[in-house]
Amino acid sequence: MSVYLLRRLIQAAGVVLAMSIIVFVGVFAIGDPVEILISPDADQMERERAIAALGLDLPLWQQYLIFLGKAVQGDLGRSFVFNEPALELILQRMPATLELAFAATFGAILIGLPLGLYAGLKPNSLASKGIMAGSILGFSLPTFWVGLMLIMVFAVQLGWLPSTGRGETVEILGTRWSFLTWDGLTHLAMPALNLALFKISLVIRLTRAGVRETMLMDYVKFARAKGLSPFRVTFVHVFKNILIPVVTVTGLEFGSTIAFSVVTESIFAWPGMGKLIIDSINVLDRPVIVAYLMIVVLMFITINLVVDLMYSVLDPRVRLDSK
């Protein structure tokens, strides 16, 4: 296990270094922030002073080396717009995004697993066919359209839920969370459902496919022949063995939820990292963009490692060795 972890950490360091180069060069190529941040009425001397103050007068390779040296010390740069550390700005918004991602992922598992299990155990029933047809809609409908329809129905016409914002929050260990208050939950409901819709369909189909495959296995037939109850066969012999692909995909989708919640956060004015990155792109705030992308890369690497380690917990046959 220790050899495996060491190997994965070395791989992770290489991935982070490679991604830092790609991100830095890519962000440098998308435009010149000077044209947005500096008034067009400023004279040449003022422009040069501003460019030097932002560190944009240096060659690209030198800017990258300065960034890399500071990044090792935990400094990912200073925002051009807010004049605050980029990492601090992102960490201020991260709890809101994590809360939304956890709520969407938990909702997908809570809804998708039972529906997929039922669809796999009774594939020819009318309800099962309805569940599978609904999962196709979950894959097909665009997120921005679903978000607008949710606002139109539940906020505008019915008036049941608020359309934007995060609502009332409660501070725990220096971090503010909205799911601990009723007002926060009502604000969280629609964006979480909008973000979870695709994942619900994915979990349904994964679970159903796993159940249909596992039901044909010899150990399941043997368990039935022993006279075990359908409940025990389903939840001890079938359900346990279909969790590995579900955990794998759900873990990776959790990272995607964090990284690509931009649309949902923009539609519902959710004050998370996604909305911050959109605002930063609009003004070409390079330090915030680079810091956001690097944090997302680190999240994906961490989630992949956690998912790999969970394999050995769910299935003893999976061995994490140094091969």
TrEMBL record:
InterPro entries: BPD_transp_1_N, MetI-like, MetI-like_sf. Gene3D superfamilies: MetI-like (1.10.3720.10). The chain crosses the membrane at residues 12-31, 100-121, 133-156, 188-207, 242-269, 289-314. Its main location: membrane. Residues 94-307 form the ABC transmembrane type-1 domain. It is a multi-pass membrane protein. Pfam families: BPD_transp_1 (PF00528), BPD_transp_1_N (PF19300). It is found in: Cell membrane. Keywords: Cell membrane, Membrane, Transmembrane, Transmembrane helix, Transport. Belongs to the binding-protein-dependent transport system permease family. This is ABC transporter permease. It comes from Falsiroseomonas frigidaquae. The lineage of its organism: Bacteria, Pseudomonadati, Pseudomonadota, Alphaproteobacteria, Acetobacterales.
